[in-house]
């Protein structure tokens, strides 16, 4: 009977003629069972016997089951960690949304307060505009009365001027009459002088006539004095009237100028009233709009506060989801640990896929605030499970495969960008850290694609 490739009986047993073939087969079978118990599915049974064929089929079946278990648990780990990554990214985004919502809520509250303050100012301006409009209307009414008064003054001055003009004509007539009286007195004086001469010639007969002539002379003299006095009075009167006429002319000019100014002021005041009306209407509309804006701002503030409250609840719920996924992953990790103890073909290639997704998840957890990392505690691409395996592979089929040769560079980039993202995050540069994690994601997809190609080599 041929020996088994992995667990054959000792050579002394094979060479011992006292040991029967059945005993050797039992010993070999026991060795195979021990190997299977230890999880070694790489052994080969001697298929030259019916029992050996059965054992080989058992080895292959158990190995296939183990590989299926490995595939399932690794795929489950990958999917669970991808879900964890998505949940952690969602948690990070929701935390940002919650923070932004809180800031927006504060800003909305400040805006609401500012709108209320502006509304108060607008109402004060509106009230002030209304008061100013009322005051201007009162001034406009006073100006209207002033215009009427100036019209009356102008008419009165014109009437007085006309009357004085009539008096000027009357004084001219009086002067003419005075001149006539003066002429008559002069003629009477001449006649009295002639009568006195004739009376003197007549002697005693003309004495009575002389007395009369003398009286006529006295009366004519008194008439001359009276006409002279009248002329003086007329001159003084005409001088006064001329002064009054001059004053009336100046007054009329001033009244006309004042009337023009009052009319201009009245026109400008009417324009001002129209402008105040427009301003009052605008301020009223602004006040109304601000009232509506104040209500809208209050509703916006309430809405944003509601959003912020729901965002906080979403953060808490997502955090619970992340914790639940982590709890599931802890059970999966136990399964992976159990499977990793088995000797299964392609085990490292398969487990490395889970390792890389877990690596990405730790980086995302860091960004989401679920895990603290330091670049010094992270392995490089030579010290991780895949790196240790990669550097020791000597199987020609693997080393000659194109995917194997292509694997080193993207694997190096996964670790390099991961370490860089941790350093950036710890330095407070979250934006650059996220960019590095994106590069990790790109390189990791390449690594996973190459590992899947190596699974069946």
Automatic annotation (TrEMBL):
Q: Where is this region: Disordered?
A: 1-21
Quick check: keyword Transcription in the entry? no
SUPFAM superfamilies (alphabetical) = Methyl-accepting chemotaxis protein (MCP) signaling domain (SSF58104)
| Keyword annotations from UniProtKB, A to Z | Transducer
Give the highest taxon in the source lineage.
Bacteria
Q: Name one GO biological process term.
A: signal transduction
Principal location: membrane
Output a single Gene Ontology CC term carried by this record. Answer: membrane
Q: Where is the Methyl-accepting transducer domain?
A: 72-308
Asked whether the keyword Cell membrane is assigned, the reply is no
A matching Pfam family:
CZB
Where is this protein found?
A: Membrane
UniProt feature, compositional bias: Low complexity: 1-12
GO terms for molecular function, please? transmembrane signaling receptor activity
Q: Which family does it belong to?
A: Belongs to the methyl-accepting chemotaxis (MCP) protein family.
Q: What is this protein called?
A: Methyl-accepting chemotaxis protein
């Amino acid at each position: 009977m041929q020996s088994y490739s992995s667990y054959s009986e000792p050579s002394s047993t094979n060479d011992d003629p006292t040991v029967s073939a059945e005993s050797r087969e039992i010993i070999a079978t026991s060795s195979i069972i021990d190997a299977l118990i230890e999880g070694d599915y790489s052994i080969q049974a001697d298929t030259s016997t019916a029992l050996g064929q059965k054992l080989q089929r058992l080895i292959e079946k158990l190995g296939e089951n183990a590989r299926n278990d490995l595939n399932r648990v690794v795929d489950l780990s990958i999917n669970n960690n991808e879900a964890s990554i998505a949940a952690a990214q969602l948690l990070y985004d929701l935390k940002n949304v919650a923070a932004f919502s809180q800031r927006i809520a504060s800003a909305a509250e400040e805006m609401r307060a500012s709108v209320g303050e502006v509304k108060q100012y607008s109402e004060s301006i509106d009230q002030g505009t209304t008061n100013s409009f009322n005051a201007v209307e009162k001034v406009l009414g006073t100006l209207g009365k002033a215009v009427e008064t100036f019209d009356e003054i102008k008419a009165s001055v014109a009437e007085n001027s006309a009357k004085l003009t009539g008096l000027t004509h009357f004084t001219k007539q009086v002067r003419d009459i005075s001149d006539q009286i003066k002429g008559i007195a002069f003629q009477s004086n001449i006649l009295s002088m002639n009568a006195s001469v004739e009376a003197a010639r007549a002697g005693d007969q003309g004495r009575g006539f002389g007395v009369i002539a003398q009286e006529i002379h006295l009366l004519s003299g008194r008439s001359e004095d009276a006409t002279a006095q009248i002329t003086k009075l007329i001159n003084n009167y005409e001088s006064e009237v001329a002064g009054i006429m001059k004053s009336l002319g100046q007054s009329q000019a001033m009244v006309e100028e004042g009337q023009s100014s009052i009319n201009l002021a009245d026109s400008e005041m009417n324009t001002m009233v129209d402008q105040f009306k427009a301003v009052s209407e605008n301020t009223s509309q602004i006040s109304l709009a601000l009232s509506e804006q104040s209500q809208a701002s209050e509703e916006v503030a309430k809405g944003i506060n509601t959003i912020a409250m729901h965002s906080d609840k979403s953060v808490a719920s997502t955090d619970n989801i992340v914790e639940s996924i982590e709890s599931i992953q802890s059970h999966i990790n136990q399964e992976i640990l159990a499977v990793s103890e088995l000797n299964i073909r392609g085990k490292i290639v398969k487990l490395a896929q889970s390792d890389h997704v877990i690596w990405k998840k730790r980086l995302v957890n860091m960004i989401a605030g679920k895990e603290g990392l330091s670049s010094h505690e992270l392995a490089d691409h030579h010290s991780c499970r895949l790196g240790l395996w990669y550097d020791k592979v000597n199987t020609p089929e693997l080393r000659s495969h194109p995917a194997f040769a292509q694997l080193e560079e993207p694997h190096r980039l996964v670790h390099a960008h991961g370490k860089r993202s941790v350093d950036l995050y710890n330095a407070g540069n979250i934006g650059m850290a996220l960019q590095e994690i994106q590069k990790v994601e790109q390189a990791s997809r390449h690594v996973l694609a190459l590992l899947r190609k190596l699974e069946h080599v």
